[in-house]
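Students often ask why we bother encoding 3D structure as a string. The short answer is that it lets us treat folding as translation between two languages. Here is a chain of 105 residues written in the first language.
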Amino acid sequence: MKRSALLLFLALSAAAPVALASSFAGTSAGTSAGGSSASSNASSDSSGNDDKIVLAARDDAATFVASGGAIRGAQLEAALRHLRERDPQAQQASDLALAEAILAL
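And here it is in the second language, the structure alphabet:
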């Protein structure tokens, strides 16, 4: 694995527990407040929503990797675009390297 892909993998791996925690906090806060969708939406921040984009692409990433890059799903495309907008290292990484990093989350 290239150095930049490895660094990106490590950065994404370090962010995974935070992403899961923020997603959980957003959903549990809404249910403890009487199930109000307004409470749930108010408790989830933009970084939690951003993490959901990447985590939602795991199935598409698996298909992409297994097909040798032949099958590209919409959720994977959204996650790749999102990662490249947020992380300069992701701009240099190949689609395959990013898909593998998504699978490692």
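Translate back mentally: The chain has one domain: 3-103. Keep this in mind for the problem set.
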